[in-house]
Amino acid sequence: MISILTHSKINGVYINGSWIETKTYFKNYNPATLEVINHVSNATIEHVDQAIKSAQDALNYWKNLTSKQRNQYILEFSKKMENDKFNLAKIVSTEQGKPLKEAISEIDKCFDFINFFTEENLRISNYNLASYKKDTDITIKYEAIGVVAAITPWNLPIGMIIRKIIPALCAGCTVILKPSSETPWSAIKIAEYFSSILPNGVLNLITTDNDDEIGRKLSTSNKIDLLTFTGSSFTGKKIISESSLTIKKLLLELGGNAPFIVFKDADINKAADDLIEAKFRNAGQTCTSVNRLYIEETISTKFIQLLIQKIDKLKLKNKTSNDYDIGPLINNAAIEKVEYHIKDALLNGAFLIYGGKRIEGDGYFFEPTLISNVNSDMEVVSSETFGPVLPILTFNEFDNNIVEKANDCPYGLCAYVYTNDLIKGSNIANKLEYGMIGINNNRPTQVNTPFGGFKESGYGKECGRDGLLEFMRVKSVYSTQVYEPRYTSAIQVRKNINN
Predict the structure, then answer these.
(1) 55 exposed, middle or buried (CB, 10 Å; 0-12, 13-18, 19+)?
(2) Residues recognised as catalytic
């Protein structure tokens, strides 16, 4: 087993049941301290080719097992992961930066996903349809789509892996996993748990910091049947373009720009608590994170004061304690993006009312930040910041365009509405162009519910029954009964009659 902070070379290339050493390695950093945690195997295109072949070779055996047989492998993996849960949570917290309590919560939710998919897997069955033609039977069959490439992000380094590879494996697919180069250690641990359980080639792992070249290889390979990716809309568009010649199926969970709308009749204390959790969880680095706050004018001053009082109580990580609420951003590029969005807003007339600065010292820490007097032309409103910055806009009771304002962005992943008038909340939810909407609820996600957005937030669904069916293809089989005639010709008929 790997211990915390080994600062050693670790293998992250796992192909056909074997860990493979590479010629070069890349550094795995702790974003809270900037220390090097590990040196990780840097895969090449040749390794990707080997992983694809390994997955192809294993596919026929794996997909022809029964659902129950595949489930047994996955449930055995789940036990291994649960037995090592706290060590795994420390790894997540160390290489991603989130508080340990958030890392534990992320892993706990993984077990819910595993339990759901293995149970739902048993409920997917072929079925028959009535035919318009006599003596014909029709069977609708569900089959594994084939070889799956899963490219996962760094913000939920365990959660996103489980959400992608478990339904793929349940469906009978074989998998090539490429985790983010920011959080490879978590993925290596997942492959370790599986390594003594799965048949060779069913799961293959590729770690690399050469994301563009390796990603392009996975996108363009005609031997991969489905590519599932979570990340930016910019990268998602590249994948769509690069994969177009192969016409492979894509499952894309891309950017978000979630509006949080608070009406004057809302429970403002609950709304403030829920907003802080939805905004500052993982330092604002989640795809469902609140990116824009809309408050009804008559309560705006009171609500902002309440927010500030609550934000003052949040604890940022320091060197003497692991009990904290907000960790670091993932890297310096993330810090620079946050700083750019704030600078752009202030230069164009916005007011900084809380925070606004990088925290000096080691690590990529940034203060929780509130900005007012913003408009939709500012980057902090129109783009996804992916950090602890909250722009605040107001509206009045006669403003019939609040839904239009909330919809005025290229993304459509998640939105939040707070009001005690549930009829009003429901009417607004019906008009919002978002795949997931929370009414007085800051966690509109659940393992048995489809997760995914509209517009540039991607397409396809993760979670729920839909998330399992994404990894299957549907085949219609028509069987017509052929009756062999007793007599093959009129001459034979006459002969038999005369006899």
Answers:
(1) buried
(2) 253, 287
